[in-house]
Design goal:
Shape: globular
Mean pLDDT: 87
Helix content: 40-55%
Number of helices: 20
Structural class: alpha+beta
Largest sheet: 5 strands, antiparallel
Distance between the termini: 40 Å
Strand content: 15-25%
Number of strands: 24
Length: 640
């Protein structure tokens, strides 16, 4: 978010806060409203709330929107589809409950919210022309007006329920003291992290051990079916080296897309933002005083970027020294735009107040509208045009090969290679789950190989290297692997097994010696382990690269000098001794009280709303108003 200058991101956060599901790093799920159902449950329906349906098509639509921003691994589709279904169902549950309780959102309430989200849609108290409004919504949120307005309404319904459920929740002194202790009680540990992978290289095996391990686990060592395929490649990389692009082609491309090279009036700006949204008048007055003090520092020659990093409350630009990049007209709220475009290069504004807070703006650069000349950008046009031309040539060649192969089922790969000058190569034996690096590890190629019969010639298949025509040469059937075939796998498995046993044994032995009073460092060293001492950390902290405070919760209940039980961390083991305990400083409580209160209150509200959600779902199920058919999502995540 870039405060007043990145209204779209702020709009997303406010608008979708209650009805958007955040899926891992940066993926937003838009809950697009759907038309009312008929009451009948079709085979496409995965859930029904009252007479409102959620269909497979809706889930797929949401998934596609996510994948447009962040491509997903195919096997993960099922997980995301289930999360999408849960959120779509909850949205319809809230709609159903709102109708039952008579909770409504008036047009005036929606208009007021849109005025907050999209101030540029209003000219004074009047909405701008419909076509301008439509364009504003599309530019800021990438959605249509009906979808945008229904999302606003849905979010406000969710907010009303949130208020109903959580308004009576309060935080008591015990809650605050518990959280204060959780954050501030610290321990410092002597510890040794034991990793089996570090022990594997020191393990030696003799032939008798390897053979015994093979015989003991023989059924485990099956060799899957492997196939050998000959292939001819239409090499797009080779074509790219041979393609020549003339200046006339570049000029034609330039003229065809000249609108792309038109630069509007724009400024490159930095800002320092102190938020006032949601604050009382008294708080706003204090914030203004702080902003004025920061402005004085800027005017006296203080480094703007350093001051932005220190004082700005805009998380989107703070760490970049307040840098917002290039801003064009109509992109920001009016007050910010007017100030930014009135400044000359290098100038700093006075305080600028917007709906978000107080801004201090600095203009780094400024450009008037113009069209970038051909000579300035022609070199940047050459590479994409070269790629396009080479890809077109490769595609044309693939089309000719397709026509030739379809003409006769007697056409061989060697016939095609002679006629179209293809270089024929041969793969090593490959299994269905093994990488096929020589052809870009293309799943489409592997699928084609394992559908073929010996001697078949495939139609061209697109890969990262170009188009490939495949001809299956040999099938090596699945079979029980001999020791010679699977020796490396047997050795790897046996070393891992022994390393895991050694790691556990070393952990137990170190803990035993430390508990008996032996010096922790000396005991670790005698076992070939490296002892370390951690920084002091709280329950919400961690030992970097080892374990989290949550995993080490038992350490906070122990006395200085106590040795904990060996802690299993996946394949690794951690042995620790409490070297020091640091009690919270009571003087810090008042400093942290406000933040702790807000955090504990938010946590309690979140838990209460989640309990409401669960209770609502259970009640609707009991009343027969909620039907779930998640098994109909089984096609998501399949590779077929």
């Amino acid at each position: 978010m870039a405060g007043g200058t990145d209204n779209r991101k702020l709009g997303y956060r406010i608008l979708l806060g209650a009805v958007v599901l955040v899926l891992g790093g940066s993926m937003l799920l838009y809950l697009v409203p759907q038309a009312p159902g008929t009451g009948d449950v079709s085979t496409d329906t995965v859930a029904q709330v009252g007479d409102q349906k959620v269909t497979v098509a809706e889930v797929r639509q949401q998934l596609n929107q996510i994948e447009q921003r962040n491509p997903l691994p195919k096997p993960m589709e099922g997980f995301y589809a289930k999360r999408i279904l849960d959120q779509l169902v909850f949205t319809k549950e809230l709609e159903y409950e709102a109708k039952r309780l008579g909770i409504t959102i008036s047009n005036e309430e929606i208009a007021d919210r849109i005025r907050q989200l999209l101030p540029t849609a209003f000219n004074g108290g009047t909405v701008i022309a419909m076509d301008q409004y439509t364009q504003e919504v599309q530019n800021r949120f990438q959605m249509t007006v009906p979808v945008f307005e229904d999302l606003v309404r849905q979010s406000m319904v969710a907010e009303k329920f949130q208020k109903l459920v959580t308004d009576g929740i309060s935080v008591g002194p015990v809650d605050l003291q518990d959280e204060f202790r959780y954050r501030n009680e610290k321990v410092k540990l002597d510890y040794a992290l034991i990793k089996p992978e570090d022990l594997e290289s020191k393990i030696t095996l003799d032939d008798a051990e390897i053979k015994a391990a093979y015989e003991k686990n023989k059924p485990k060592y099956q060799v899957p079916e492997r196939r050998v395929v000959r292939y001819g490649l239409v090499d797009v990389n080779q074509m790219r080296q041979n393609v020549r692009i003339s200046d006339d082609q570049l000029k034609a491309q330039y003229q065809q897309n000249i609108q792309q090279y038109q630069v509007p009036n724009r400024v490159h700006a930095e800002h320092i933002l102190l938020f006032t949204k949601g604050k009382t008048d008294a708080e706003v007055a204090e914030i203004k005083k702080k902003a004025e003090d920061v402005l004085k520092q800027v005017k006296k020659g203080g480094n703007f970027e350093d001051l932005a990093k220190k004082y700005s409350e805009d998380p989107g630009s703070k760490d970049k020294g307040g840098d917002l990049g290039w801003i064009i007209e109509k992109q920001t709220v009016p007050e910010f735009e007017k100030a930014a475009f009135s400044l000359n290069k290098g100038q700093v504004s006075d305080l600028v107040q917007t709906v978000y807070g107080f801004h201090i703006i600095k203009v780094l650069d400024k450009e008037t509208a113009h069209t970038r000349p051909f000579d300035e950008i022609k070199d940047s046009l050459r590479a994409p045009l070269l790629l396009t031309e080479a890809d077109k040539q490769a595609s044309d060649e693939a089309d000719k090969l397709t026509a030739e192969i379809r003409k006769s089922n007697k056409t061989t790969l060697d016939d095609l290679a002679r006629e179209y000058h293809l270089t024929v190569s041969e793969t090593r034996p490959i299994g269905q789950t093994e990488p096929l690096l020589e052809l870009g590890n293309s799943q489409d190629v592997k699928d084609a190989i394992f559908r073929q019969r010996v001697g078949d010639v495939s139609l061209p298949v697109r890969t990262d290297r170009g188009y490939v025509v495949l001809s299956l040469k040999q099938i090596l059937p699945a079979h029980q692997g001999s020791l010679e075939e699977v020796r490396d796998k047997v050795i790897g498995d046996l070393k891992r097994e022994k390393a895991n046993e050694q790691a556990r044994a070393k952990a137990d032995e170190l803990a035993k010696r430390a508990k008996a009073g032996e010096n922790f460092d000396a005991a670790a060293k005698s076992l070939g382990l490296e002892a370390k001492i951690s920084e002091a950390f709280a329950r919400n902290g961690n030992i970097a690269g080892a374990a989290s405070g949550k995993q080490l919760a038992a350490a906070f209940q122990m006395k200085t000098g106590d040795v904990g039980l060996p802690l299993s961390l996946g394949a690794n083991w951690l042995v620790y001794r409490v070297a020091e305990k640091q009690e919270p400083n009571p003087a810090d409580f008042e400093k942290q009280k406000k933040e702790i209160t807000e955090q504990v209150l938010q946590n309690k509200r979140s838990l209460a709303f989640e309990a409401f959600r669960t209770s609502l779902e259970n009640r609707l199920k009991q009343e027969g108003k909620l039907k779930l058919m998640p098994e109909r999502l089984k096609t998501f995540g399949t590779l077929g």
